[in-house]
Design goal:
Number of strands: 30
Shape: globular
Structural class: alpha+beta
Strand content: 25-35%
Oligomer: single chain
Number of helices: 12
Radius of gyration: 24 Å
C-alpha cells in the first residue's frame, strides 16, 4: 500500500461537524451570445451553499443549477451523437438541450488549478468535500463538477439529470422494438420495467396490443410465453421528462429469481448521446474559455471558478463504463480538438461500455450472469490498446481514436476481484479469447483490489441478506481515493504513479474459473457447506441486426449468443484469499481472519440460487482452531 493510502485510511476514521450556510432559491441566469463557447448557451443558478467546518481554515461553495447547451448537427465533431440528425432544431438550426449541474468551488486560500469531474451514478453523486472537510482530498483545493448525463432517471432530491429532446423523422415518430428484463427478489404484482426511479419508452398503439412477455429461471432455459391477457402495460407521461413511467402488472404476480422478458414496439427515443456532449462542452468551457471576453467573464463570475489548467474524471461502476465509452467514441476531443480530460479513472467498470449512445438507449442496464445478459453493453474492444475481435476480425482499442487525434488521457483502471467473476474484468488486460496477456499502452495503469466486492464495504461483517454468504465487508474506497491524488500528480506534475498491479496469465496469477471437471482449484478450493459458482459471467458476442455496427440501432433482440469471450479470474491461496503479489490488498485482507470471497450466490429466498448474486462478494470466517479446520475441510 502507498504511504498516501495509509494516510487516507488513518484520516478516514475522524469526523468533522459541518457548519453549513444555505441560500435557497437564489436564482441567477447568465446567457451567452449565439456564438457561445463550447456550445454552452446559458446557466441558471438555483442554490448556493457554503460548506465549512470547525478546525479547518478553508471552505467550499456548493452551487447547483441548470446549464443549457446547443449542438450543431453540421459540426463533424458532433457526428458521434446517435440520431442527432433527427433531433428538433431551433431557428438557428441548432439542437437545444440542458443538464443539471453541481459545482464545488474551494476557497481561494487552497484553490488549485485542477478540476475533478465526477460521473454521477444514476443521478447520484457525493464528492469528497460533501463527505466532510476532514476527507483527505478536501484540503487539496480541487474544483469538483458533476453534470446530469442520463435522461431515463426520474426526478428526485439531489439527482443530476439530462434533459434531452425526443428525436423524430420530420414529425413522424421513430419506432423500434425494445426489450426489458425484470427480476425481483421478493414477490410483486406490479413492477417498473426500467427499475426503481427509472423511466422507459411509450409503446405504439400496435406495440401495446402485441407486447410479448416470457419467463425463465436461468439465462439458458427455454422461454415460457405468458398470454397477453395475463399482463397489463401502463404508460404514464411525466411532466418533467421527455420519457414516461412504464409499469408492468402480472396476474398472479412476479416470482422471485425468475427472468421476465418484455418486448414491445416503442416510439419516441431520446437524444441520449447528448449526455456525453454536455460533459465535453461544460468541462471545455471551464478549461479553455477566454476569460477576457466580457460575456464569458460574466458567466464564470457567477461560478467563482479558479483558472483551470488540468482536469481528470472518475466514475464508479456504470459511471466508469461511461468514461471508457466517452474516450472510445471520441468525446475527449472538444469542438476545437483540444483534450477535455488529461486523465480518466474508471473504477469497478469491468469490461463494459453501456447503452449510452444508441437509439432507445437504456444507460443504467448492467449485464450480469443471471440477468441482462445479452444487452449490447459489454462490447469489443475491451482493451485500451488494440486487439483483434475473434468474431468479427476487427482490430480496435479504446484509446485508438484519442491517440490518433492527440487527445488521449492518462488512464487508471481500478477494479476489485469481484469484477473478474461478475463483469468480465480480465478482458481489459488480456486478449478477447483469454489466452494471452495484453500489453498496457504507455499512460495506462491497472490496479486490481483483492479480496473485495463491487461496492466498498464498511469494514464490519454483517449477516447474509440477498446472498448465501454474508456480504464481503472490505473497505477499499480509500485506496481508489489515494489513486485519484496520484492521477492529479501524474497529469499536473509528471510524477509517475505506482506501477500497475493486477493478475496475469504469464505468471499463473490469472486462471480459468472452471475446467472440464468443474471449479478450478486454483480459483477456489471447495469448502464443506459452501456452494460455489457453476460458472462466471461471460460477455457474449451477439447479432443486433444490420444497422447496429454503423448506426447503433437495434433491429434484432438476440435470444442466444454467437459465442463468448474468455474471462478469467485471480488465482487464490490455500485460504481462498487473493495474493498481495498480483492484487492490492486492503488492510483486512493483508493479515486475514477470514476468507474475503470475490463472489456470492443468490439466496434461496430470492430464487435462482445457482446464479451469482448481483455484484456481490462473500465473507467466511477462518476456523478458530485445527479441529474446526479439519471438520470444515478448510
Amino acid at each position: 500500500m502507498t504511504d498516501l493510502a495509509k494516510d487516507l485510511l488513518t484520516s478516514m476514521s475522524g469526523k468533522s461537524r459541518i457548519a453549513v450556510r444555505q441560500w435557497f432559491w437564489i436564482f441567477a441566469v447568465a446567457v451567452l451570445p449565439a456564438s457561445a463557447i463550447a456550445e454552452v448557451t446559458g446557466l441558471r443558478i438555483d442554490s448556493r451553499e457554503t460548506l465549512s467546518a470547525d478546525g479547518v481554515d478553508f471552505s467550499y461553495e456548493a452551487i447547483t443549477g441548470l446549464v443549457s447547451f446547443t449542438l450543431d448537427p453540421a459540426d463533424p465533431r458532433n457526428a458521434a451523437v446517435v440520431d442527432l440528425q433527427y433531433a428538433p432544431t431551433n431557428a438557428q438550426g441548432l439542437v437545444d438541450y440542458a443538464a443539471d449541474f453541481k459545482l464545488l468551488v474551494p476557497s481561494s486560500n487552497i484553490a488549485s488549478d485542477t478540476l475533478l469531474y465526477n460521473v454521477n451514478n444514476r443521478g447520484g453523486s457525493r464528492v469528497p468535500p460533501e463527505a466532510g472537510l476532514d476527507h483527505p482530498l478536501s484540503e487539496l483545493g480541487y474544483t469538483y463538477l458533476v453534470t446530469g448525463w442520463i435522461n431515463e432517471i426520474s426526478a428526485g432530491p439531489g439527482r443530476q439529470r439530462l434533459h434531452a429532446p425526443v428525436v423524430d423523422n420530420n414529425g413522424e415518430p421513430l419506432t423500434g422494438q425494445v426489450r426489458y428484463e425484470v427480476v425481483v427478489n421478493a414477490p410483486a404484482v406490479t413492477v417498473n420495467v426500467g427499475g426503481s426511479g427509472h423511466l422507459g419508452y411509450p409503446a405504439t398503439t400496435s406495440g401495446l396490443r402485441a407486447a410479448q412477455l416470457s419467463r425463465r429461471q436461468y439465462q439458458d432455459d427455454e422461454r415460457e410465453a405468458i398470454p397477453r391477457s395475463d399482463f397489463e402495460l401502463v404508460v404514464t407521461p411525466q411532466a418533467d421528462s421527455s420519457q414516461p413511467l412504464v409499469e408492468l402488472t402480472l396476474d398472479g404476480g412476479f416470482e422471485p429469481g425468475m427472468i421476465y422478458e418484455l418486448v414491445y414496439e416503442a416510439q419516441d427515443p431520446v437524444l441520449a448521446g447528448a449526455g456525453m456532449t454536455a460533459i465535453r462542452d461544460f468541462v471545455s468551457l471551464l478549461r479553455y474559455a477566454n476569460r477576457g471576453d466580457a460575456k464569458v467573464a460574466e458567466l464564470l463570475a457567477e461560478l467563482h471558478v479558479p483558472a483551470i489548467e488540468h482536469s481528470a474524471a472518475w466514475g464508479i461502476s456504470q459511471s466508469g463504463r461511461l468514461l471508457r465509452q466517452f474516450v472510445y467514441e471520441g468525446f475527449n476531443a472538444d469542438l476545437d480538438g483540444k483534450r477535455v480530460f488529461d486523465g480518466v479513472i474508471p473504477v469497478i467498470a469491468g469490461a463494459g461500455f453501456g447503452m449510452f449512445n444508441n437509439r432507445f438507449a437504456m444507460p443504467t442496464r448492467t449485464n450480469g450472469q443471471h440477468s441482462n445478459h445479452l444487452y449490447p453493453n459489454d462490447l469489443f474492444p475491451f482493451t485500451y490498446g488494440e486487439s483483434v475481435d475473434p468474431f468479427s476480425g476487427r482490430r480496435d482499442g479504446i484509446l485508438s481514436r484519442a491517440l490518433a487525434s492527440g487527445t488521449a488521457p492518462k488512464v487508471m483502471h481500478i477494479q476489485t476481484s469481484n469484477e473478474y467473476w461478475v463483469r468480465g474484468g480480465s478482458l481489459p488486460h488480456t486478449n478477447p479469447e483469454g489466452t494471452e496477456d495484453a500489453p498496457l499502452p504507455e499512460g495506462v495503469r491497472f490496479y486490481t483490489i483483492g479480496g473485495s466486492q463491487h461496492g466498498s464495504g464498511s469494514g464490519r461483517p454483517r449477516p447474509a441478506t440477498s446472498g448465501q454468504l454474508p456480504a464481503n465487508p472490505n473497505r477499499w474506497a480509500p485506496l481508489s481515493d489515494s489513486l485519484m491524488v496520484a492521477m492529479v500528480r501524474w497529469i499536473a506534475e509528471g510524477e509517475a504513479p505506482p506501477e500497475s498491479r493486477y493478475p496475469r496469465i504469464s505468471d499463473g496469477s490469472l486462471v480459468p474459473s472452471h475446467t472440464e471437471r468443474g471449479i478450478n482449484r486454483d480459483a477456489w478450493n471447495p469448502l464443506r457447506g459452501v456452494n460455489h459458482p457453476a460458472d462466471l459471467y461471460r460477455p457474449a458476442a451477439a447479432d443486433y441486426g444490420d444497422r447496429w455496427a454503423e448506426q447503433r440501432i437495434i433491429d434484432r433482440h438476440p435470444q442466444q449468443a454467437l459465442g463468448y469471450y474468455g474471462p478469467l479470474v485471480p488465482a487464490v491461496n490455500l485460504d481462498n484469499n487473493d495474493s498481495a503479489q498480483s492484487t492490492v490488498l486492503p488492510p483486512l485482507t493483508q493479515v486475514p481472519l477470514a476468507t474475503f470471497v470475490p463472489w456470492n450466490l443468490r439466496a434461496e429466498a430470492t430464487g435462482a440460487e445457482r446464479s451469482l448474486a448481483r455484484l456481490a462478494g462473500g465473507y467466511i470466517s477462518l476456523p478458530a482452531n485445527t479441529a474446526a479446520a479439519v471438520q470444515s475441510r478448510d
